[in-house]
Specification:
heterodimer; A: Rossmann fold; 6-stranded parallel sheet; 18 helices; about 60% helix; elongated; B: flat
Chain lengths: ~475, ~100
């Protein structure tokens, strides 16, 4: 028996919205349908947002309307501005930024709702209190953690792990404080002050947890934070009694979790090791020891490298983060086109954790209009390197480091890598001999088959293209 | 633990399974758009911010609601627009001969 038609209408609209979200996500599994999938999600979002406005709890005093309209319009304007102007190479920091914004929204909504209930003297059930605690913790960690990740990716902060004496102890203490505050809030009806302390402590933990993680592990961190925000949104739904929040948040939480597992597996490390392993501290020792030996390298010119490639049968290009930094994706496409004119088969080998977020390289190459059937995943192409005449490594480092196969003392030992060293000739484009983001020495650069071409990847690629044209 | 929260938990768990089932088939080529799209979807907490803003009745709640609206709207609108931009590039058919 329906007694409240307005509430029933809202609930049915939410249900429709949830179904559209799921169909939209389904369409994201193929490049041909992905764009419409995203549009489906937009429709679902629009529907859910609009019907919420007819909710009975709205007061509709002028001040509420003004806040609602101006806050939303301002946020939308800023979001759209950044979304339209950001470079494709800067996608990881963009995602981190939006992710942090979502986490912050979830935490603030929970805070405001809780404090509103308290001040109006309404009772709060243990279930709601628990959901509030979880939402505030996850939302705040996501907000602060994403802000730090953004800083690292934007290079406002050092991409290397930032560590200090007793860091893990401090983080553990903050973690315990958070648990204590949470228990107090749920079990003993802690008030306004406690929830604010919880918010502050979770922010501190978010900062503390991401600071010691190095730039090379960012694909995992971003996936974890994405999942955190999704779950924070879902538990917000528990608190404000809104099912579409629960469904949409859970979908995002699942997606983030799925990508987290994939990324960790691609590095052959457990999630715990990535998040708490303090990667950098181990590598400093190992890298320094090898660097001390000062092994020889073979430096080359663009002309020599171009000749090797122009007369090859097959060239495999291995892009990495350096390509994104140098914004060289269009030049790489031109070089490939020039090589193809010389009858060379060109393929791209994409390591799952190349770049700073899952699928980063695919987006860059798609922007440069590289057909996606030329892109090969690691398992597909690894057997082919031994038949390739030239492997061209552009700004990749750790994902081609043979130490991962052979050196048990290396921090990346056991990580599946691209078998670049099996190619007949290896050409490496690199800014300098500085070790990569993970700070690990790379044996590949000292391989007698390896030719090093130093300089900005974009410039080097342009020179190579010109030289191939002349060859 | 009241009924409503428990019901929410059921929905949550089932939605997680649906999510894994649906997203598990996304190829690695599309991992960045997937992440970017889901990133926009969790912006649905903006709806929570709507509810807060609609029922706010104290200066503190006004301020919290305003910040939540700003952040949430940035997340939703920015997230969807940037994903759309990205996917437009994936849609382009290769013009050159293969």
């Amino acid at each position: 028996m329906i007694t409240d038609y307005r509430a029933a209408f809202i609930d049915i609209a939410y249900l429709v919205s949830a179904i559209i979200f799921i169909f939209g996500l389904r369409r994201l599994s193929s490049p041909a349908t992905a764009r419409t999938g995203n549009r489906y999600a937009m429709v679902a979002m629009g529907l859910a947002l609009v019907v919420t406005l007819v909710d009975r709890s709205f007061i509709w005093k002028p001040v509420n309307v003004v806040i609602l309209v101006i806050g939303t319009a301002l946020g939308a304007a800023v979001g759209i501005y950044f979304a339209r102007t950001v470079q494709m190479t800067a996608m990881p920091q963009m995602v981190a930024l939006f992710n942090g914004m979502g986490g912050g929204t979830a935490a603030l909504v929970e805070l405001a709702h809780f404090s509103g209930l308290l001040n109006s003297g309404q009772s709060i059930t243990a279930g709601e209190a628990l959901a509030t605690v979880i939402g505030v913790i996850l939302g705040s960690i996501s907000l602060a953690g994403s802000a730090i990740a953004f800083g690292k990716l934007q290079e406002l902060l050092s991409g290397r792990p930032i560590q200090y004496q007793g860091q893990s102890v401090v983080n553990a203490i903050v973690g315990l404080v958070i648990i204590g505050l949470g228990v107090f809030l749920v079990g003993f009806n802690g008030g306004d002050l406690i929830i604010w302390l919880l918010f502050a402590a979770a922010l501190v933990l978010g900062v503390g947890a991401v600071l010691p993680i190095g730039g090379a592990d960012m694909p995992v961190v971003i996936a974890v934070l994405n999942s955190c925000t999704g779950i924070a949104a879902a538990v917000t739904g528990f608190v404000v009694h809104n099912e579409i929040l629960v469904v949409a948040g859970a979908l995002v939480g699942a997606s983030g979790g799925f990508l987290t597992v994939l990324m960790s597996r691609a590095m052959n490390r457990s999630l715990g090791n990535v998040l708490f392993g303090a990667f950098g501290s181990v590598t400093a020792g190992a890298g320094a020891a090898v660097a001390g030996e000062a092994k020889p390298i073979r430096e080359t010119t663009a002309e020599d490298a171009a000749v090797a490639m122009a007369y090859a049968n097959e060239v495999i290009i291995v892009p990495g983060y350096g390509l994104a930094v140098a914004q060289g994706q269009h030049q790489i496409r031109e070089l490939a086109a020039e090589l193809e004119k010389h009858g060379v088969t060109v393929k791209y080998a994409i390591h799952p954790v190349a770049g700073r977020m899952p699928g980063h390289m695919n987006v860059l190459l798609a922007e440069a209009n590289v057909p996606y059937d030329q892109l090969y995943e690691m398992e597909q192409i690894n057997g082919e390197f031994e038949r390739a005449d030239v492997a061209l490594v552009v700004g990749a480092n750790d994902v081609v480091n043979p130490a991962a196969r052979s050196d048990t003392s290396s921090p990346i030992y056991g990580m599946p890598i691209l078998n670049v060293d099996q190619a007949r000739t290896i050409v490496v484009l690199k800014r300098s001999m500085r070790p990569g983001f993970a700070g690990i020495e790379n044996e590949l650069f000292h391989n007698p088959k390896t030719l090093m071409l130093f300089g900005d990847a974009k410039d080097s690629l342009a020179k190579l293209t010109a030289a191939v044209k002349a060859a | 633990m009241n009924q409503e929260v428990l019901l929410g938990a059921y929905i949550f768990i089932l939605a997680i399974f649906v999510g894994i089932e649906v997203i598990g088939r996304v190829p690695s080529t599309l991992h960045t758009p997937l992440m970017s799209a889901t990133n926009a979807i969790h912006g649905i907490v903006l709806l929570g911010a709507f509810l807060i803003a609609g029922s706010a009745n104290s200066p503190l709640l006004y301020v919290l609601a305003f910040i939540a609206l700003f952040l949430g709207a940035g997340n939703v609108f920015g997230g969807f627009v940037v994903t759309d931009r990205m996917l437009e590039m994936f849609k382009k058919k290769p013009v050159e001969k293969r």
